[in-house]
Fold this protein.
Amino acid sequence: MTVWQALLRPAVLILTAGLFFTYSGGYAFWFFEPTMLQRLTGWSVQRVGWMGPVIFGAGLLGMLLFGWSSDRLGERRWHFAIPQLTAALALGAWFVLPQSNVMLVLIFALIGFGTIAYLPSFWALPSTFLSASAAAAAVGFINCIASIGGLVGPKIIGVLSERTGSFNSGFICMIACWIIASVLVLLCPRESTSNVGVQQSGH
């Protein structure tokens, strides 16, 4: 199997699309989190800054926990989807639960968890159906193409916020991105063990 054949596999293309939506929602949140927190709470810049370790510390803990759990169980897809869906559900809760500053910080902490904890599980996926060299090429390809989402997401959220004067439309957009990403990765074609063995032995 050539590198190009590996990159054009349906599973690789679906993972690329999934990560694109993940990055679109994730980068939008990372870039606008201080602005959103300040506008929605009225807090000072200094106080907003102190919330960063809480919000993204949850992501770090989630990444360590889910990376360990994913390796122990040998499961990748749900260890990707659960954090993403957690972020989507948490942000959706903002529309239905009583709003308060404490609730907002809790929601943002869950989003911080959801937009970071998936990383170890996702990047282990290509090696489950590709040989070592093909998986390395796939990782580079997936990250390169999906990184465009890191430009698209913040741009869309910025435009929506400017035009509507609210973050609600942007929140809905982020929720949609994380749900779409989860569905794509969960539905990603599973390669048979025999196919992997043939690929690796033929490499």
